[in-house]
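Appendix B. Chain record.
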Amino acid sequence: MKTLLARAYGFHTGCLMKSAKRVLYKTEVAVGLAFLNMIYRNTGSVDINFLNRLKW
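Structure tokens predicted for this chain:
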């Protein structure tokens, strides 16, 4: 399948799409870590039992 897409769109387009996916994944990880950091700064811990209170 990868070779078919590489032939259809060109090799460089495939590399660009792969790089864009990596950037997206790394951004998601950064947002998750920022969220945990924000919780730690506001509460002083990242205790799972305490975080259960945040559920609706």
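Further analysis of this model is presented in Appendix C.
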